[in-house]
Amino acid sequence: MPHHHHHLIANILHLIAGGGIGLVAAALAQHIGARSADRMPGDSRAPECFYCLRPLTWQDISPLFGWLLRPDTLNFPCPCGLRKNQWTQPAVEILGLLFGVIGMYLADWGWTAVPLCIGLGLLPAIAMIDLQFRIIPDGLNMLLGVLGLWWLYASGGDRPSALIVAGSLLAVGLFFALVYSRWRGKEMLGLGDVKFLAAAGLWLRPDLAPWFLTVAGGLGVGIGFLWRYLGGDKEFPFAPALCLSLVIFVLVETAQMP
């Protein structure tokens, strides 16, 4: 369990710091990751408006202020005003803020909590990008894995076990993506999901990995039914279930640390 400071102001400042780290990570991952998912070969990698293709300014990309200070804020318009109801950015940022606060509370303040808060902030962005574009950018999967290694070293985790878990989840993902998909005659798991599983394994203890897969599968079934009910395609994105399950078990693991 975390050993919290006895001073209320210090505790509040630490929680704000954790939430801020998660917020910034979520905001940047959403902007950059969405651009990566939507970018055509030869296009600029800089974030731009999906509708008018205008490059986004630093005010547009700024967490919270990128949408909070925009005219007609409650309708969440895109920067050019051509489309309304652009709720994805504030939703991702709010979730990143929430996860960062919870992560900091469970880990207690210290530099060791930085990779935890950043990693938790990435997950809402990964889930939303998969919902929007049906793809998980390789860069976000790679960054999640690097942060997992950083968190593993910073928290004194069992590195050989983490590598074994990562390899095992990679093998499970490849089985579903290549073998089971061929047997069923349709894609059961995308390669982006497979790479996510490998990165997720670096965050999980061996005893939590089977529960992570079980909960992700159950959440996937529930999200799939909801997806079809809301008029989605026959194939639904699996990343939201994977991300939510990973958030749950990373926080469980953090809470159980001595």
Which structural class best describes the helix and strand composition? mainly alpha
Helix-strand string: HHHHHHHHHH
Q: Helical region count?
A: 10
What's the β-strand tally?
A: 0
Beta content comes to: under 5%
Shape: globular
Low-confidence stretches: none
Rg to the nearest angstrom?
A: 19 Å
Query: Termini separation (Å)?
Result: 5 Å
Largest sheet: none
What number of domains?
1
The percent range for helix content is 55-70%
Mean pLDDT comes to: 88
Task: Describe it.
With 258 residues, the chain is an all-alpha fold. The chain has one domain. The chain contains 10 helices and no strands. The longest helix has 31 residues. The radius of gyration is 19 Å and the shape is globular. The chain starts with 7 loop residues before the first helix and ends with a helix. The mean pLDDT is 88.
Task: Give a short overview.
This protein is mainly α. The chain is 67% helix and 0% strand. It has one domain.
What structural keywords apply?
67% helix, 258 residues, 10 helices, mainly alpha
Would you spell out the secondary-structure blueprint of this structure?
Elements: H1 8-38, H2 58-61, H3 65-68, H4 88-107, H5 113-133, H6 138-155, H7 159-184, H8 191-201, H9 209-229, H10 239-255
Helix pairs in contact: 1-4, 1-5, 4-5, 4-10, 5-6, 5-10, 6-8, 7-8, 9-10
